Amino acid sequence: MSHTFPDLPYAYDALEPYIDAKTMEVHYSKHHRTYFDKFIAAIKGSELENTQLTEIFANISQHSPAIRNNGGGYYNHVLYWNCMSPNGGGAPSGDLNEAIINTFGSFDEFQQLFTDAAINTFGSGFAWLVVNNGELKIASTSNQDNPLMDVAGVQGEPILALDVWEHAYYISYQNRRPDYIEAWWNVVDWNTVSENYAAALAQGR
User: Fold this and answer.
1) Considering the entire predicted model, what is its pTM?
2) pLDDT tens digits, residue range 109-123?
3) Domain interval for residue 66
């Protein structure tokens, strides 16, 4: 395999008014692209050029900070983009909804716990919903770490990602991270998250 930079799955303005077009353009074409380019430069000429990201992350403590930070930034943003849609919002259905209720008591309780994890992530980072041994867990990581990495406090297969770096929201929301998170729930693509959940279970995660 080789590592590629995927297209954004929708137009820059597709998530307005919740996430503005300028933020999307800068975030995707500048920040995300830079992480990808620096990751490719960091692994150039090594066996990691043809190693799956999941394998790299599983042993990330053995690799350089450049691989950890930029590889994480490359992967984390792909999941973040794919978990949003102009037709998003609402709540999940089917098996994922049942799992959320069984784990957290209700969707509203899950939403509050996830929101709290995102708000309380100190500095820059991500909030996650992961599958670990078939169970759902909420996690947060600093910088561009993720739950696939062997350095993560909570490990598992990420099925939902929320970027809480300031560059993800500052143009519209300035320092009001809670307002950005509240708006973000309106674009969560639960169909994709449900597909991610089913795939994680099928892989025995």
Assistant:
1) 0.96
2) 999 999 999 999 999
3) 19-204
